[in-house]
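Milestone 3.1: sequence recovery, worked example.
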């Protein structure tokens, strides 16, 4: 069961406190733990009850809502503040006190609901978490008449030549019209790295890296004599990946 958000209602008008308490009672995630009819009482109850949020009126005798907001920002545990007032003129000042929201009387239930949502998100309680979508574990390679599903771990490298992308596995080579960039994006969760504008290699199959010329290198893969070019622009990044 999720921990409820503890709310303290601060307003010098009893009927306003009762109305807001009634509205908040419809939200099962909110627990009204107390009410205060003045700024002094608000500070005392904030210290005693440790609320998560103050629903705070602005215009109150002696100590107004802005003074209460200044005080609670000096506390070790600072509650969120949602101003609830009949006066629209204080909104700019309210947000200088890092108010989460500014509600006007008479309270609009839709705006109150939006304020509660923002409060939940800020406190990381009851926030909506989208369902986890399973990530694909196979690379689909569409041919002329078939679709082959390859285990990315079995792919040694991918190359692009004459508008055809070749996917070279341990025992077989596949061709697709998909651009190299598209295949690279589909393999970005696996151990693949771009070594050349036309080559993408599986880091797990690299055997040896040999200097070639002009800062470029040649790369040898396990189980094959084939050598792949490594452009000098990619050498530093490749070595960093291999030397982790």
């Amino acid at each position: 069961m999720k921990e409820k958000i503890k709310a303290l209602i601060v307003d010098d008008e009893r009927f306003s406190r009762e109305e807001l308490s009634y509205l908040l009672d419809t939200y099962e995630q909110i627990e009204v733990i107390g009410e205060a009819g003045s700024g002094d009482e608000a500070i005392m109850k904030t210290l005693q009850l440790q609320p998560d949020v103050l629903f705070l009126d602005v215009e109150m005798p002696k100590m107004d809502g802005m003074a209460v907001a200044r005080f609670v920002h000096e506390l070790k545990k600072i509650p969120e503040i949602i101003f609830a007032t009949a006066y629209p003129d204080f909104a700019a000042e309210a947000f200088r006190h890092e108010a989460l929201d500014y509600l006007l009387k008479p309270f609009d239930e839709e705006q109150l609901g939006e304020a509660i949502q923002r409060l939940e998100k800020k406190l990381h309680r009851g926030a909506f978490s989208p369902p986890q979508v399973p990530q694909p574990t196979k690379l689909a390679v569409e041919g002329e008449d078939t679709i082959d599903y390859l285990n990315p771990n079995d792919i040694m490298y991918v190359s692009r030549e004459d508008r055809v992308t070749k996917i070279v596995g341990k025992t077989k080579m596949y061709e697709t019209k998909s651009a190299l960039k598209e295949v690279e994006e589909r393999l970005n969760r696996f151990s693949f790295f771009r070594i050349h504008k036309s080559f993408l290699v599986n880091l797990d199959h690299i055997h040896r890296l040999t200097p070639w010329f002009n800062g470029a290198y040649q790369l040898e893969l396990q189980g094959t004599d084939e050598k792949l070019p490594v452009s000098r622009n990619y050498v530093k990044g490749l070595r960093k990946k291999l030397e982790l």
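Residues 145 and 176 are 12 Å apart (CA to CA). DSSP finds seven helices and 15 strands in the chain.
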